[in-house]
Give the backbone structure.
Amino acid sequence: MLEWLKDPEFNFPGQLEHGGFEHGVCVGQIQAKAGLTQSTVSEYLSILQRAGFIEAKRVGQWTYYKRNEGAFEALSKLIQTNL
Amino acid sequence: MLEWLKDPEFNFPGQLEHGGFEHGVCVGQIQAKAGLTQSTVSEYLSILQRAGFIEAKRVGQWTYYKRNEGAFEALSKLIQTNL
DNA sequence: TTGGTATATCGGGAAAAGTCGATATATTTG
DNA sequence: CAAATATATCGACTTTTCCCGATATACCAA
């Protein structure tokens, strides 16, 4: 999912009918591509969010998720320096 | 354990009586510090070795493990570029 | 307010990982 | 070869993680 979100336009074409890509991609789009149930995907996204790798924005009945690039940079540096 | 192996002289003083630090640290030293059973530590080290994070060298009845710094650098770069 | 849609949360069963004791293998020493 | 020591492997049990269906919550439209 994290890799998919690097190129939302390519990986989630259906998102066009759901408000575009400004805020990210909504859960239903990710669920369809992942082939897992709605509850599983929702929980997974919430874990990634708590871990800081993605950000959530609620707009109406949709929740949009997008990557937080800083977290990946920080993880990479953490491995370099602390591990 | 991976962090411990960054400074073997400091973290495994008992290793002095087991051939020094040239080849790394032997399993018994790591086991004592970890506070886990011998079998658990042995299996754990073998997993880290298969993953490429440490290297093993058998000398007599001892197996010495030391870090493979290249693997950490590679992981850090992988996160930067692929994740 | 009622029904429809999108997402989140909850509880449980299945799968995987962690840990142990017992035992096997390899090496050294007498 | 026999005993001692260091490490590896095996089988079982426990804990954690994964994933699901059911249900709850939030929002929108009629």
Q: What stands out?
A: The helical segments of chain B are 8-11, 27-34, 38-50, 69-82. Chain B touches chain A at residues 2-3, 72-73, 75-77, 79-80, 82-83 (CB under 8 Å). Strands of chain B lie at 25-26, 54-59, 62-67. The first strand of chain B starts at residue 25 and ends at 26.
